[in-house]
Structure formats: structure tokens, C-alpha cells
Specification:
Blueprint (H helix, E strand, L loop, with lengths): L2 E3 L5 E7 L4 E6 L4 E4 L4 H12 L4 H10 L5 E3 L1
Antiparallel strand pairs: 1-2, 2-3, 3-4, 4-5
Length: 74
């Protein structure tokens, strides 16, 4: 999966696999999480948030973590 850097104090890169709906988040501390069955619009919103210089961490909390998508730490 191709990853893209984001502007964030905690998140380094994000990637998305459209076929499986897997969102991959790489944190600056080196930890990597895969979130499953995430709609593409959520990933697109994440990239847009970064490009606007808004908080990527806040977006992840509201639109991914609090929604309760299944995840695994790699």
C-alpha cells in the first residue's frame, strides 16, 4: 500500500487500500495501525485535513477511532 506523508505532530504517514477499505496510519513514534472497512471518503477527508493544515490527530479521533472501526497494531 502506498503511503503519503501528512502534516501532523503525531502522525507521519497514511495509506489506503480501496479494495479492502484498509486505512494504514504510521505514527511518528514508529507504531503502525491498520483500520478495517473504512470508507474512502474518510481517507480523502484525512488527506484534505492535512493539506489545509488542520489537526490530523483530531480528525482521526473523531472520524476513525470514535467510530469504532476494527483495527490492529502491526
Amino acid at each position: 500500500m502506498e503511503r503519503f506523508p501528512v502534516v501532523s505532530s503525531n502522525v507521519a504517514e497514511v495509506g489506503y487500500d480501496e479494495a479492502s477499505g484498509t486505512l494504514e496510519v504510521v505514527f511518528k513514534d514508529g507504531s503502525v495501525y491498520n483500520y478495517f472497512d473504512v470508507p474512502g471518503v474518510v481517507y480523502e477527508g484525512l488527506l484534505a485535513t492535512s493539506s489545509r493544515g488542520e489537526s490530523v490527530g483530531k480528525y482521526l479521533n473523531i472520524n476513525v477511532k470514535k467510530v469504532g472501526y476494527r483495527y490492529t497494531k502491526l
